[in-house]
């Protein structure tokens, strides 16, 4: 997909707009699959929370992916997109027992991450196979907000609680068919990941009827040219060898599972927005765009970096700009970044906008969420329409007769 293709999409569908390149998604899926081709049984379960548009889910299903879900709504989306129930794993955190039971009734695989619910579910449904999410107490990830395997994390059952866990399993006679961990996102240190994996292998020895071991994901992708990333090929070689050895020791060919989200869709996404104003202050040149953290919150929320390209002037002289949005709070996408010279009306492109971008968008400031477009086989296909004012008020109940304006009260009082 070229700069001119992106500019044409902005012209056709307006801005701001999200664009996803299906070819990149497919190549990332194949890259991860090939990295683990020494494993007999591999299952990639796409993390729906990264980008949950139903067309993207259908694309993943066509590739043979499973689906990792964290809410009953994502489960329902997956079923609607054509995933078989047994290809969906439900890995919620802090949800009610009723929601887990609802997912189990739909036939999807269940992953439980706390002792309380494990005991309740096992007591009521001992025949339903359950995967257990372990917290290995390993700090991994590029930001504290996305590191989820450390000792203070709310996620998973502590490895120090294994005796308690085993007592629950023994008393309820429940069927444990999988062991799972997820240490965090933006993992670079393969050694740390492999160390956490050893903890998972050791834990797995306590369960005699496992079908799979799920190692989570969190592989780092590059955010700019020359940026560092997780070496999935090296990880694949080392973890595959260790996994195969474990299967021989265990006496059964297990499935090695991952739940990639960002790795599959981040680089495939582009967010396009128009420059409304170029504003020179005493110290800074601001490029204000027709969007804000209501559409792309990652820079403000995570301090995430998104490379910004001026599609309208890609060969212009580079100057320093702070790119900001129209939300009436601090709303900064980038501070003092070198970007090809910007003029009002230019279209800026934010790269790595495929994961946790549209899915975290909101109607803050009563703004409409943007459309989504899939670039597939050299064609632009609209996969979500831009919201309208009707969408904004669709579920609101206008109690217009509940309150009487002050001036009407005064008029009524005069008449009396």
UniProtKB/TrEMBL annotation:
Pathway: Amino-acid biosynthesis; L-lysine biosynthesis via DAP pathway; L-lysine from DL-2,6-diaminopimelate: step 1/1. GO terms for molecular function: diaminopimelate decarboxylase activity; pyridoxal phosphate binding. Keywords: Amino-acid biosynthesis, Decarboxylase, Lyase, Lysine biosynthesis, Pyridoxal phosphate. It is an enzyme of class 4 (lyase). Residues 18-354 form the Orn/DAP/Arg decarboxylase 2 C-terminal domain. It catalyses: meso-2,6-diaminopimelate + H(+) = L-lysine + CO2. Pyridoxal 5'-phosphate binds at residues 218, 356. Coiled coil: none annotated. Gene3D superfamilies: Alanine racemase, Lyase, Ornithine Decarboxylase, Chain A, domain 1. InterPro entries: Ala_racemase/Decarboxylase_C (IPR009006), DAP_deCOOHase_LysA (IPR002986), De-COase2_C (IPR022643), De-COase2_N (IPR022644), De-COase2_pyr-phos_BS (IPR022653), Orn/DAP/Arg_de-COase (IPR000183), PLP-binding_barrel (IPR029066). Its cofactor is pyridoxal 5'-phosphate. The modification N6-(pyridoxal phosphate)lysine is found at residue 49. Its EC number is 4.1.1.20. Substrate binds at residues 298, 302, 329, 356. The active site is at 328 (proton donor). One of its GO terms (biological process) is lysine biosynthetic process via diaminopimelate. Specifically catalyzes the decarboxylation of meso-diaminopimelate (meso-DAP) to L-lysine. Homodimer. This is Diaminopimelate decarboxylase. It comes from Cerina litoralis. The gene is lysA.
């Amino acid at each position: 997909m070229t700069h001119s293709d992106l500019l044409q999409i902005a012209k056709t569908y307006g801005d701001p707009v999200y664009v996803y390149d299906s070819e990149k998604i497919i190549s990332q899926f194949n890259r991860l699959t090939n990295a683990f081709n020494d494993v007999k049984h591999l299952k990639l379960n796409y993390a729906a929370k990264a980008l949950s548009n139903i067309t993207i889910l259908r694309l993943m299903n066509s590739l043979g992916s499973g689906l990792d879900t964290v809410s009953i709504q994502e489960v329902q989306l997956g079923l609607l997109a054509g995933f078989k129930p047994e290809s969906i794993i439900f890995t919620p955190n802090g949800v009610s027992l009723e929601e887990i039971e609802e997912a189990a009734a739909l036939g999807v695989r269940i992953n439980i991450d706390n002792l309380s619910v494990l005991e309740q579910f096992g007591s009521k449904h001992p025949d339903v196979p359950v995967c257990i999410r372990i917290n290995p107490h390993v700090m991994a990830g590029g930001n504290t907000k996305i590191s989820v395997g450390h000792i203070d994390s709310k996620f998973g059952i502590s490895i120090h609680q294994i005796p308690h866990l085993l007592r629950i399993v023994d008393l309820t006679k429940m069927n444990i068919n999988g062991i799972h961990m997820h240490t965090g996102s933006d993992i670079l240190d393969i050694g740390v990941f492999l160390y956490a994996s050893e903890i998972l292998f050791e834990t797995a020895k306590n369960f005699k009827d496992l079908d799979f071991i799920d190692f989570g994901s969190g592989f780092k992708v590059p955010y700019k040219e020359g940026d560092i990333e997780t070496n999935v090929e090296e990880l694949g070689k080392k973890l595959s060898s260790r996994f195969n050895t474990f299967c021989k020791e265990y006496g059964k060919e297990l499935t090695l599972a991952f739940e990639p989200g960002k790795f599959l869709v981040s680089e495939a996404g582009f967010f396009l927005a128009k420059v409304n104003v170029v504003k020179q202050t005493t110290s800074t040149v601001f490029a204000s765009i027709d969007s804000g953290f209501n559409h792309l919150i990652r820079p403000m929320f995570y301090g995430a970096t998104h490379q910004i390209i001026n599609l309208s002037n890609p060969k212009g002289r580079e100057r320093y700009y702070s790119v900001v949005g129209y939300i009436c709070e601090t709303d900064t996408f980038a501070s003092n970044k070198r970007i090809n010279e910007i003029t009002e009306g230019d279209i800026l492109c934010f790269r790595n906008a495929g994961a946790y971008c549209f899915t975290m968008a909101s109607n803050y400031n009563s703004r409409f969420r943007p459309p989504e477009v899939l670039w597939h086989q050299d064609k632009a296909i609209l996969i979500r329409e831009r919201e309208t004012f009707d969408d904004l008020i669709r579920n609101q109940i206008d109690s217009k007769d509940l309150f009487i304006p002050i001036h009407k009260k005064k008029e009524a009082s005069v008449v009396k």
